[in-house]
Amino acid sequence: MTRMHHPGRWLGGLLLWPLLAIAQAAAAPPDYPPPAWLGDAPRLATELAAPPLTFDRVTRIALLSAPGLWDAYRAHGISPAQLARLPHWRDAAPLSVRRDVLGLDAAPLARAQLTEAVLAQVAAARLDWLRLALADQQLALCRQQQQAAQAALTLMQAQYRAGNAAEDKLLPVQLAARRADADVLDCRASAAAARRDLAQRLGLPPGSALAAAPLPELPAILPAQDAIAALAAQSPAARLRAQALATEAKLLPARGATRGVSLPLLHGFDAEAMPPVSGEQLAAWRAEQEADAQLAAEYAGLTLARQRYALLAEQLPDARRYTRVMLTHYNGMLGSVYELIAARAAEFALQRELLEQQAAFWQHWLALDARLAGALESDFPQSAPSSPVATPAATHKEHDHAAP
Amino acid sequence: MQRRDFLGVSAGALASLGLAGIATQANASKGSGDTPVAVKGGRTPVTTLNTRTLGFRMNNGVKEYHLIAEAIEQEVAPGMTALFWGYNGSSPGPTIEAIEGDRVRIFVSNKLPEHTTIHWHGILLPAGMDGVGGLTQPQIKPGETYVYEFTLGKSGTFMYHPHADEMVQMAQGMMGMFIVHPKNPAERRVDRDYAFMLASYKIDPGTRRPDPAEMLDFNLWTFNSRTFPAIAPLVARTGERVRIRVANLTMTNHPVHVHGVDFRVTGTDGGWIPEAGQWPEVTTDVAVGQIRVIEFVAKAPGDWALHCHKSHHTMGPMGHGVPNMLGVDQAAATQQIEALLPGQHYMEMGTNGMAEMQDMAAMAAMMPLPPNTLPMMTGEGPFGPIEMGGMFTLLKVRDELQPGDYSDPGWYEHPPGTVARPADSKAFSGIPI
Ligand SMILES: [Cu+2]
Questions:
Q1: What is the ipTM of this complex?
Q2: In this structure, are residues A342 and A72 in contact, taking their beta carbons and an 8 Å threshold?
């Protein structure tokens, strides 16, 4: 375990903490108010969850208080209460789970179960965060669409009251406005559900007022597919599969060849000439194939979302320009004010589509990153540095050197 | 060099160089302006609004003219130019003036991308000279020049226009006037002789070319392919006898109305109307494919409106899908629409009428119109916005105007006490209503 003593490497801190006292406390059922064995972790998590909730903050909170990690922490003797005393939570530099927490570059195969649990929980938390960011931004656009529909209705109602429009004109506009109301209701419910799910995932109180930072812009260039494949081959999962295959290969000669079967098709062939293969090897090869296929599908999804996003993004300036053109037509009494409102509403609809593709891209990106054990995470565009969490001076000084 | 001369030279020069495509015509004049080309024998020459008379040469007793059918670009009114097809650099083409009994030889060169012909509307001539493509002659193919030759048996007011792919070619502006003066200069003599053609176009806001497929829904109603305020005014000296020849090549009728005079219809494209057949009018309807010649004595000085009486023909382009906002309280909706359009200027319109449209047009920097179109209402008079457009111009009658002076005399100065004014409430209280 000497390799874990590198200063500044979180894993050292995590794994060197005494296990026993905590293991006992961890047996207590989680409940609110938080159990004492969590120590300051819930308070710190709540502090870190202050808006705007960024990708990096979500990662930190997940490590600190995601209930999905409790079993793995207990199994590895990691105390959330002691974790909370680490000074690193307040570092301004983005945290890399792969490098700073798990030390995967140095020891890719160590602590496989903990690594798997941490990667899985962090990835799940990031995806929930993405869902919330999408839902909140969707809700804002939903409300703008509602405002557009309502503006048309208000005007049409005024025309109706003045005796200038009849129900054949009024009712469709009214229906559209009510549909927009229903849409806002759905958008709001999605955002609330996303907020609840994220709070639960992060071990935050159910009513937490989480507000995700806006989705980042798409990167200018994508890593090439063969580079992704190379990274995948280096992932702990791939290394473990390779290790299993190597072990099996050594064991095989002792087990002997597979017994031959008599089939008309095989007449004249010597079954014993077929190389001996174990069931474990077959399983490992199947897993390899499946992993490759899933990786390729994820990459294809990423590429498609990016292309769709680019096509939609190209349309946005034209949609905006069309609104301005409709305004000139309105100014010249050449076009209807309702056409002007519809043009603006079409902009909002396009922005929603754009947002969906933006979220789809990052969803694929995060899934890909999880498959690569965090090999992409440091490329995630970090939002502008938000104000660091207020540091209680006493706590900071007291536990400045948590790692021996 | 005078503007008329410049135009004559430029169109001719382009023609002789064989330049294909677009000849750009200089701006419409402000007044009826230029002194018309003299006609032999002391006859009063015709003034074609915003357009010139075609020159000719004598060749062994025959008057020779040359018309060139070609694409042109021309201003409809300030703020809008159009890609027309016309003759010799303009739409309508230059007016042909001749004298009863003249033998005329008219060369027609086709610089259009498709074949054409010219029909001499109303003129009695040999059938083979009538200009109906396919029926009385082969089509004049692009690049070809044909010659027409006939004798003008009677005086009157006529037109020329294509009789080949008519729907397209007339919708693109191909037309012109053909005026034959009586042989006897004293016959039907007038002091001022004006002419213009009624032409309508569909040129969508932001576009430049007339839509030839439009049958009914035109948005530009013009005199000589210009709209108010780019249409030249008609000027006359008080007491002068004035003739106006109005030819209609649109797809609908136009009740032409003149303020400040009563007139008689003295002729049509069929010929002169004997005095016994004339009656007083202030409006005469000019049906499709018709000419009405009206005459009057300009008795009263002033600036008098002369316009088509269909009110939507005295307007710039307007959308038909515009919702009716008259009497609608838009305040709440306006707030909501403004919130939808941050950083833009949105102005509610139409609650109290549409007169504010002209103010809107005046604020074009803040509230822009589409490019290359005209405001629905325009024109600035001595008392404020005139709120007109399309088929509208002015008849300016002045005591002090010199005979033969066609320049714009400016705004009429009313004698004191002769202008409508706000009334004192005491002055009208007690009148039965
Ligand atoms: Cu009219």
A1: 0.85
A2: no
